[in-house]
Each structure stands twice: as structure tokens, then as C-alpha cells.
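WARN  no MSA supplied for this record, continuing single-sequence
INFO  ligand: pyridoxal-5'-phosphate
INFO  echoing inputs
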Amino acid sequence: MEIENMYQSMGISKEVYNFGKEILEGLKERFEKIDEVAEYNQMKVLNAMQECKVSDVHFAATTGYGYNDLGRDTLEEVYAKVFHTEDAIVRPQLVSGTHALAVALSSQLRPGDELLSPVGKPYDTLEEVIGIRESVGSLAEYGIKYRQVDLLEDGSFDWENIRKAINEKTKMVTIQRSKGYQTRPTLSVARIAELIKFVKEIKPDVICMVDNCYGEFVETIEPTDVGADMCVGSLIKNPGGGLAPIGGYIVGRKDCIERAAARLTSPGLGKEVGASLGVISSFYQGFFLAPTVTAGALKGAIFAANVYEKLGFAVVPNGTESRHDIIQTVTLGTPEGVIEFCKGIQAAAPVDSYVVPEPWAMPGYDSDVIMAAGAFVQGSSIELSADAPIKPPYAVYFQGGLTWNHAKFGILMSLQKLVEAKIVTL
Ligand SMILES: *Cc1c(COP(=O)(O)O)cnc(C)c1O
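INFO  complex generated
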């Protein structure tokens, strides 16, 4: 009763609250499983930190060249232990996920080499990195060829054409775990395992890299546990735990990391330089919290799927299927629908809740886009956020929530806005 009053004072009607409550009754078992995964991953991270003897001396800020930056080097050991790899790069100098991926790709590939994506079109920003869309400095400009094999209609791998696409020039295979903002299914680690095994049987020395964005800690194993030579992600998504204010990571085989470091800093300098400034303690603390934060975001995604599925909207993934990333798509079907949804997410934010988001023309998009984000870290998508291009089928992409309680409130607020605009009747 007390909690209901609290929600009411925050603008959530009794009807909306009760609707959510009923949905939640049916999700208890599901949430228990998520908590179990988080518990396992918490131990995994804790164990790595203990084994690496993490201490407060590691939290000191370094400046200048950053030689002998113990905090940085130890954090990279912690990441390597958690991902079960030989080495890691975890740095504020990796400015985003796209940058980390660009470094990972360009460091391994040489002129004349071929890169293959056996899982269809990669994330939008990688099109210019690879040169699928012409861009200054792309891999294509360096004479690196790109091949792509799309997933089949039903989301399965096109084994035959993948086999045909691998040739003597194929140096690297890039596998995107999350569907990102596409409609294909997200790949489970088990499916990534199958794919890597298949590729390595055809050509054992191909470097298999996984774009792990949005996938970290959703399962108890990571792609590096099943044969990936490199795994790459952003610290303003899952592994930063909401605390890292910037950064990216690359984990993997020692020789791959050595090449990546030579590309990130400079040949000859590699991992030896790169001051961590004052951000390193947030990297540690965020990584420590990441399993729980990811679990909260996952619960939010599942709650949203079930709320909107019950109301008759198309949702991907659906309310019951197993999850391999934290992104939720809800197709609201009208411009008003996506706008009201995003207004709700914004109104629920701890930061800029009084701002009303509006559709806007954005560079790189062929329609107006509406974005809701009241985040502590600019652009952070492990924090509660939603965005939608204003074009058919009028789908909103929703993700994050630093705590499950906040994600829940955001979803209830989105529903509240839709009810108030008479788009939804309960
Ligand atoms: C977010 C994301 C990226 C790019 O990361 P940024 O930090 O936005 O540059 C790449 N791939 C996938 C699958 C992503 O979700």
C-alpha cells in the first residue's frame, strides 16, 4: 500500500501500477534464473579481483606517458581472468565501442586481406569503419576486402555460403553477438561456439573476433570461452556497470592484443603507455557491479516485453524467449506511440526528467529520430534509455536501467504516458 502511494505520488496511476504488478507475478521464476546468472558472474569477477590482489594503490591517478601504471595493468589482468584470455586492453583511450572495434579490426588486417561477416550486416557505425559505406580512413581505403554472408530467413547460419566465402585471403571473421538495432535474433554464446568451430575447421588460422556489445554477463560464459580469439566491447554499456565515464576493452589471444596495442598507441610502445588519469577506480568498481547492473537491465527488458506483448504490440524478443543481450524492441505502430513511450522513459530519469524529448533530424539517419536519455554518463546505454526512428513500423528500442527498480519505474511511466494519450486502454 505504501509503495503504491509512492508510485501514485510519482505519477503512476493505480491501474497502471496494478497492470504491472500482475505481469510481474508471472515473471518470478524467470527473474530467479537471472539472479542466479548474476550471482555466478559476481563470483567470477570477485575471484579475478582477489587473485590479482587488487588494492587501493591501483586506484591512483596516473598522468603523462603512464609508464608502469599498476592500476591499469592490474585491471587488464582482471579482465583477462574474467574472459579467460591471455591478455586484455582496457582503456579510457578507447573512446567508444566503435573505436575499440576499429582498433581490433585494423590492427589484425593488412592490405590484401579479407574480412568476413557470416552474420549479416554489422552495426551501423561499423559500415564506415569497414568501408561498406565510403569513408575516409576505412579498411577499404587500405585495400582490405569485405565479404558478408547474411543469416537465412529463419535466423540460422547459411553454412554453405559461409564455407564458400572463406578463401586463402580470409584473415579475420567478425561476429556480432547482439542484434543491435536490427530484427535478426541475438546470438547465444552456444551459437557463436558452433559458428567459430565451423570456421576454424575450414581455416584454423582465421582470427575470430566477437563484437560483444550489450552481451557481457547476460550468460555465465562469454564468446572467449568458446574459441573467440578476440572479444570487444564498450565500457558505457554492460561491463562499465554504469560507473565508467568512458572506455572500451579488447580481450583475447596474446599476439592479437599485442597487435591491437601497437595500433592503439604506437608500434614499439604498445601497452606500456597510456595514463589512466583519474578514471581507473570507476573502471574497477563498475566492473565489480556489472553483473548485477546487467541483471537489472535484463529484468527491465523482460518486463517491458511482457507488458507490451500483453497489450497486443509486437515485441522482439518476445515475452518468453531466452535472452542474449539487453535490448528490447517494442513496435508501437504509430508516431504518437513511440513519442509517448520515449516521453515516459525521459520523465522517469534521475537526470533531465523535466525535459520533453522531441523527434529531430540526426546525421546518419534517413528519418527524424526521438531519443530519451536522462543519464549520468552522456550516451550511456546501460542507463535507462530509448530511441526510435520516426518511420514505419514505428518501433522503439529500449535498454538499460542501472537498477531493476528504476527500469520498472521507467516502463510503468512509458505505459502511463500511452494511457494518458489514449493510445492504450487497460
Ligand atoms: C553500441 C554498439 C556498438 C558501438 O558502440 P559505441 O560505443 O556506440 O560506439 C557496436 N556494436 C554493437 C552491437 C553495439 O551495440
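The two ends are 21 Å apart (CA to CA).
INFO  checksum written, moving to next record
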